[in-house]
Amino acid sequence: MLVGLLGLLVASSCLPRPTSETGGINITLYGFSIMKEPLEKAIYPAFTAKWKQEHGQDIHFTSSFAGSETITNQILQGVKAEIAILSIERDVQRLKEKGFVTSDWRALPQKGIVNKTPFVILVRKGNPKGIRDFSDLAKPGVRLIHPDPISSGGAQWSILAIYGSEVVKAEKQIPNLGNVPPKEIGQARGLELLKSIWRNVFSTPASAREARTTFELGNGDALVTYELDALLMTKSSSNADAEIVIPEATIFSEHPAVIIDRNVSSSDRPLIEAFMQYLWTEEAQRAFVRFHFRSSANEALNQENKDLATIKLPFYVDYFGGWDKAYPDVIEHVFRDQVQKRK
User: What's the pTM?
Assistant: First the structure.
């Protein structure tokens, strides 16, 4: 009898702890702002149904969405998120440095990158300002909305997109004949373009989603944002006062998903890990694509969404040497020290 009871206790300890009166189990996930729709409308319901069918347990999700830097700060300040989906890898590093993430998040599928999306430009319907590329955002009279780089990972991606576009184009288009390498010419052009564009920024909302909302309310002439958020806006209504401009060269943002190990008990870990693995299944990746993200796990799935643009000169943060170099070299040295402080 005692042996049987001990066996039952051991088996039950491997299952997540019920956290509601109905025996349901709660997962708390904090995500950067534009993760809301695919998670709440597709991925949560599908995983909940799958877990119920396989384990007979009810799953509930508690979510919070804001700028990537903001939710990282909230976790560091003590909110009990068990999973975070962030806009930038640098925020994962911040969580690791403070001991909130202790497992090897790069051991997850696709090195922890759950989806990706290029940066594009939203303009008013009919494109009255004649904006065709990032350089046109520097035109006199263009009123630009840009999320705040202090709170928004999307804002940092946008800065890399604008600056990097000039570097990439210079390397592709300028012959390496003179004393100055094309890359250095592009870096100088990127700095000057950022300076010119930032003079036209009149609103800096806290997140990419708040920036889109500001634009939707009729403010400004243009907004640099994630392709998926631009598509969600233009496809949400046939009367949407916006259209999308695809830059010649632009960055693909890549979004890491991590377990906040400090907040996960041993009894809850099997469920948390199961959900994390689910994010890279074909079912979940297809859901991301349906909501205009690009799959990180299966490029063929991206062909299923005909609204996704073809980027002529795509690049990634690896072009800058990864976030360990992109943040100090571009976000701090170029943008903060030479653009923002001198506006």
Answer: 0.89
